[in-house]
C-alpha cells in the first residue's frame, strides 16, 4: 500500500562547521532541480550515507546510485566532530566505560570492521595522513578523579586482552605542551581524521559511481512499488532507499519516542602564530579524549592546506528534543570552553577563539541503533549513539548489505541488537536528562 511521508523537520546546524571552513573552497555538487530516476537513493551525506553509498557501489556497481544531502557535504555533524574513530567500547551513557565482556568483544570486532572499511576508502581515494591518521588514541586525566577513571579503563582493557601504554606526567607534557595532564592511556587501534576533509575526499572518490546532490533536502516520500522522494525543486524515483539521516529519521516519522537528540559543542582558536606555537610546545598534531566521559576533548592540529595550527576544545551536552539549540545553550558552552581552554593552555592566554559551534548526536536510552527496513525497500541506518564516525560507517555498510544481500556474517553479528527502547514522557525526560548531564559535568570537576 502506498503512503505519503511528510518530513517534519530539516536539519539546522548551529554555528560554522569549522573543520570545513578552515579548508580551501570545496567541490560543489549540484542541487536537484529535475525529476530523475535511480535504482538506489541514499538520503544524508554523513559517515553513514557515504559508507552506504560505497558499499552499494561495491555490491551493485552497475546500478545507479543517487545521494541527496540537505545542506552542503561536510557542513553537517560529520564535518563538525572531533574526528576520533574509536575501536574500543566508549559508551557515552556509562560512567566508567566499562560494560559486559562478551558485548564489548563483539563491539570491538564490529568497530574494527568499520575502521577497516574507512581505511580502504582512505587508501583507495589517496587520503593523506593529515586526513586519516591511524595513530591510536590517548585518554587523558588532569585530576585524581580522572586517574581513577583511567585505572578502571585500564583494568577493563586487561580483561579484554587489549594492548595499551600508560603515559606519565612528563610524557604527557612533552607530547601536548601543557602541564595540565597527569596521566594518559594510549591504545593503538583508533584513527584520527580531519572530519570535513575525510567527508569531502570520500565524496570526491565516490563521485565516479554515485551522483551527489547538495542543498537538496528530502521533504517528503511517496512510497510505492517505486518510491518518489521529493525535494523543494525536484524528485527522484527509486525502488530502494537508505535513510542515513541519524536523528532526523524521526522527522520522517520513524522511531517515535525512542531517540534522544543531544547536542555537543566545540570552540576552535584562530591560527596560532609561530611564537605561540613555540610557547605551546609539544608535538604539532595530537588529541586527547577525557578520562571522565563528561570531560573535555582536545585536539591540536597542524597546518593542513593553509588551515593554520589550531587548538579545538569540545565539551558540554544538552538534550534538545526539538533538534534545535538555543542562544543560551551556545553561550553556556562558550563559557565552559573558555574555562577549559584557559586551564589547559595558560601559555596561550589572549589567543582568540575564532569558531564556535554545536552539533547533533542521536542516542537511544539503551544505546541501540535505529536500524532496519522501516517500509518496504526503505532502510534506516540511524542513531549512532554519539560515535558516528565508526558506528555510522558500520550501519551504512550494514544497511547496504541488508538491502542487497539479505545476510552476511558481519550483518548477522551486527543484527544481534535490540530496538531502541521507549523514552520516559516529557517534560520529565528533558528536565531529568539535562539536570543529570549538568550534575555529571559538575562532578567532572577540572576534567571539564
Ligand atoms: C562537536 C562534536 C564532536 C564529535 N566528536 C566525535 C568523535 O570524535 N568521534 C565520533 O565518532 N563521533 C563524534 N561526534 C558524533 C558524530 O559527528 C556523529 O555521530 C556522526 O556525524 C553521525 O553520522 P551520520 O552520518 O549517521 O549522521 P550525520 O553526520 O548527522 O549525517 C546525516 C546527514 O543527513 C542529512 N539530512 C538530514 N535530514 C535530511 C533530509 N531530510 N534530506 C537530506 N539530507 C538530510 C544531514 O544534513 C546530515 O548531513 C561528534 C559530534 C559533534 C557535534
Protein model, in words:
The chain is α+β, with helices and mostly antiparallel strands and 448 residues long. The chain has one domain (4-447): FAD/NAD(P)-binding domain. The protein is built from eleven helices and 20 strands. Strands 1, 2, 3, 10, 11, 12, 13, 19 and 20 form a nine-stranded mixed beta sheet that branches. Strand 15 and strand 16 form a beta hairpin. Helix 2 packs parallel to helix 6 (195-206), helix 2 packs parallel to helix 9 and helix 3 crosses helix 9 (388-404). The longest helix is centred in the N-terminal third of the chain and has 24 residues, at 101-124. The chain is globular and about 65 Å long. Residues 92-98 have low confidence and may be disordered. The site of flavin-adenine dinucleotide (FAD) has 41 residues, from helix 2, strand 14, strand 18 and helix 9.
Low-confidence stretches: 92-98
What do we call the CATH homologous superfamily? FAD/NAD(P)-binding domain
Compounds present?
A: flavin-adenine dinucleotide
Q: What share of the residues does DSSP label as strand, in percent? A: 15-25%
- CA-based gyration radius: 21 Å
Q: What distance separates the N and C termini?
A: 52 Å
What's the multimeric state? single chain
Largest sheet: 9 strands, mixed
General shape:
globular
CATH architecture: 3-Layer(bba) Sandwich
CATH class: Alpha Beta
Could you tell me the number of beta strands?
20
* Mean pLDDT, all residues: 96
Helix content: 25-40%
CATH topology name: FAD/NAD(P)-binding domain
SS-based class: alpha+beta
State the domain count: 1
By DSSP (H or I, 4+ residues per run), the number of helices equals 11
Amino acid at each position: 500500500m502506498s503512503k505519503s511521508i511528510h518530513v517534519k523537520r530539516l536539519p539546522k546546524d548551529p554555528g560554522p562547521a569549522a573543520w570545513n571552513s578552515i579548508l580551501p573552497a570545496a567541490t560543489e555538487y549540484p542541487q536537484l532541480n529535475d525529476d530523475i530516476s535511480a535504482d538506489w537513493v541514499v538520503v544524508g551525506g554523513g559517515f553513514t550515507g557515504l559508507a552506504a553509498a560505497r558499499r552499494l557501489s561495491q555490491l551493485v556497481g552497475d546500478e545507479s546510485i543517487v545521494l541527496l544531502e540537505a545542506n552542503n557535504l561536510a557542513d553537517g555533524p560529520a564535518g563538525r566532530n572531533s574526528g576520533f574513530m574509536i575501536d574500543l567500547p566508549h559508551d557515552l551513557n556509562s560512567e566508567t566505560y566499562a560494560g559486559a565482556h562478551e558485548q564489548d568483544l563483539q563491539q570491538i570486532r564490529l568497530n574494527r570492521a568499520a575502521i577497516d572499511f574507512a581505511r580502504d576508502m582512505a587508501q583507495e581515494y589517496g587520503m593523506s595522513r593529515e586526513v586519516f591518521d591511524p595513530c591510536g588514541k590517548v585518554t587523558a586525566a588532569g585530576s585524581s578523579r580522572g586517574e581513577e577513571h583511567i585505572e578502571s579503563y585500564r583494568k577493563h582493557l586487561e580483561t579484554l586482552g587489549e594492548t595499551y601504554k600508560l603515559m606519565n606526567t612528563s610524557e604527557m607534557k612533552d607530547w601536548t605542551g601543557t602541564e595540565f595532564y597527569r596521566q594518559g592511556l594510549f591504545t593503538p587501534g583508533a584513527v584520527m581524521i580531519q572530519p570535513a576533509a575525510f567527508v569531502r575526499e570520500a565524496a570526491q572518490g565516490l563521485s565516479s559511481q554515485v551522483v551527489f546532490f547538495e542543498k537538496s533536502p528530502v521533504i517528503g516520500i511517496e512510497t510505492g512499488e517505486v518510491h518518489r522522494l521529493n525535494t523543494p525543486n525536484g524528485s527522484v524515483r527509486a525502488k530502494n532507499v537508505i535513510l542515513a539521516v541519524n536523528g532526523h529519521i524521526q522527522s520522517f516519522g520513524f522511531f517515535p519516542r525512542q531517540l534522544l537528540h543531544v547536542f555537543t559543542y566545540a570552540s576552535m582558536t584562530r591560527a596560532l602564530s609561530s611564537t605561540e606555537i613555540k610557547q605551546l610546545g609539544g608535538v604539532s598534531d595530537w588529541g586527547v579524549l577525557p578520562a571522565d566521559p563528561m570531560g573535555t576533548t582536545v585536539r591540536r592540529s597542524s597546518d593542513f592546506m593553509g588551515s593554520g595550527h589550531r587548538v579545538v576544545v569540545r565539551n558540554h551536552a544538552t538534550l534538545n528534543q526539538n533538534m534545535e539549540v538555543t542562544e543560551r545553550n551556545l553561550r553556556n558552552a562558550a563559557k565552559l570552553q573558555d574555562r577549559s581552554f584557559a586551564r589547559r593552555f595558560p601559555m596561550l592566554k589572549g589567543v582568540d577563539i575564532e569558531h564556535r559551534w554545536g552539533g547533533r548526536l542521536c542516542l537511544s536510552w539503551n544505546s541501540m541503533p535505529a536500524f532496519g527496513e522501516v517500509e518496504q525497500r526503505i532502510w534506516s541506518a540511524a542513531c549512532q549513539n554519539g560515535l558516528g564516525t565508526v558506528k555510522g560507517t558500520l550501519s551504512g555498510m550494514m544497511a547496504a548489505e541488508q538491502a542487497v544481500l539479505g545476510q552476511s556474517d558481519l550483518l548477522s553479528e551486527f543484527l544481534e541488537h535490540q530496538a531502541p527502547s521507549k523514552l520516559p514522557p516529557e517534560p520529565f525526560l528533558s528536565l531529568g536528562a539535562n539536570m543529570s548531564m549538568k550534575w555529571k559535568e559538575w562532578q567532572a570537576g577540572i576534567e571539564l
